[in-house]
Amino acid sequence: MSARIIDGKAIAAGLRAEVAAGVARLKESHGITPGLAVVLVGEDPASAVYVRNKGRQTVEAGMASFEHRLDASTSQAALLDLVRRLNDDPAVNGILVQLPLPGHIDPAAVIDTIDPAKDVDGFHVVNAGRLATGLPALVPCTPVGCVILAKQVHPDLTGLEAVVVGRSNIVGKPVAQLLLAENCTVTIAHSRTRAVADVCRRADLLVAAVGRPEMIRGGWVKPGATVIDVGINRVAAGDGTARLVGDVAFDEARQVAGAITPVPGGVGPMTIACLLRNTLEATRRQHGLEAPG
Ligand SMILES: NC(=O)C1=CN([C@@H]2O[C@H](COP(=O)(O)OP(=O)(O)OC[C@H]3O[C@@H](n4cnc5c(N)ncnc54)[C@H](OP(=O)(O)O)[C@@H]3O)[C@@H](O)[C@H]2O)C=CC1
Ligand SMILES: Nc1nc(=O)c2c([nH]1)NC[C@@H]1CN(c3ccc(C(=O)N[C@@H](CCC(=O)O)C(=O)O)cc3)C=[N+]21
Ligand SMILES: [Mg+2]
């Protein structure tokens, strides 16, 4: 048996086209151009990939892109000042501060300073709390991307045994919240989980967000399960160049799974598409416009 490969690249392209159409309608009917500000402090390889792809796709969707690249030695006070200026700038509808930040900056203080209405990452405690309590929220992009990809296989996720490996605030916890809202029975595994392979083997829907290259082996996957691989890990290839791999051993898992996302071309492109969708939605709400039915 060989798994169906879930084509995140194609699904993300479709979602970006929908967002572009929404942006065009907003411009035509209200003269509003959504604007997304991205702040990058220092150099982080994962963030560099993300920023490169995103700047181009923001402009392709018809939005304004504002990039702020700051030196790695930038003080926390200077970064908070920039965030406050972006909060007050009416041309900026979405703000994303790339994580991780240099060690001398407290990420919680930065996220807490972002206006929740412009928090298109969905990382502010107000948005996390609204998601957890079932209120409308700006929802983290990668978790939403995971759910959209899972729904390609199971349009209704109700009743599935879902196992999420990883409990970070940016991926593991919010993806678990979204799957709970979709009526899955959700287990969250982490570095202190006993017999993690056995826990994974229970999953009809397995979401891997660990940050450990190819940790999840073929034998951890229940036959026929749907596997969503969030991991983005750069590893050295045989010839000395860098290669991108997920948190799942893809060549093994595809022999067992019913469906699986590839890396690259799976969750990564969905993250950017959902970021653009959040930016459009945030813009509409800031102007008192409801999303069209
Ligand atoms: N595709 C995309 O768009 C995105 C991809 N990513 C990628 O997703 C991955 C996860 O990111 P992120 O959530 O930020 O990572 P974090 O490092 O913040 O969290 C990793 C989680 O995995 C758990 N973990 C670590 N080792 C093990 C283990 N041996 N067994 C079980 N659980 C373990 C940790 O547990 P504990 O809490 O106990 O330490 C932690 O909860 C990374 O590869 C990252 O690059 C991230 C964001 C977007
Ligand atoms: N505030 C903040 N929000 C984030 O959402 C955030 C962040 N900081 N810091 C870094 C991580 C990582 N991340 C990625 C998103 C898309 C791809 C992506 O587009 N990947 C493509 C291309 C990869 C390639 O070609 O190298 C793919 O998987 O196919 C990668 C990584 C978002 N993150
Ligand atoms: Mg994200």
Automatic annotation (TrEMBL):
It comes from the Bacteria. Pathway: One-carbon metabolism; tetrahydrofolate interconversion. The keyword 4Fe-4S does not apply. NCBIfam families: PRK10792.1, PRK14186.1, PRK14188.1. This is Bifunctional protein FolD. GO terms for biological process: L-histidine biosynthetic process; methionine biosynthetic process; purine nucleotide biosynthetic process; tetrahydrofolate interconversion. It catalyses: (6R)-5,10-methylene-5,6,7,8-tetrahydrofolate + NADP(+) = (6R)-5,10-methenyltetrahydrofolate + NADPH; (6R)-5,10-methenyltetrahydrofolate + H2O = (6R)-10-formyltetrahydrofolate + H(+). NADP(+) binds at residues 166-168, 232. Homodimer. The keyword NADP applies. Belongs to the tetrahydrofolate dehydrogenase/cyclohydrolase family. Signal peptide: none annotated. Residues 140-286 form the Tetrahydrofolate dehydrogenase/cyclohydrolase NAD(P)-binding domain. GO terms for molecular function: methenyltetrahydrofolate cyclohydrolase activity; methylenetetrahydrofolate dehydrogenase (NADP+) activity. One of its GO terms (cellular component) is cytosol. Coiled coil: none annotated. HAMAP family: THF_DHG_CYH. Catalyzes the oxidation of 5,10-methylenetetrahydrofolate to 5,10-methenyltetrahydrofolate and then the hydrolysis of 5,10-methenyltetrahydrofolate to 10-formyltetrahydrofolate. Keywords: Amino-acid biosynthesis, Histidine biosynthesis, Hydrolase, Methionine biosynthesis, Multifunctional enzyme, NADP, One-carbon metabolism, Oxidoreductase, Purine biosynthesis.
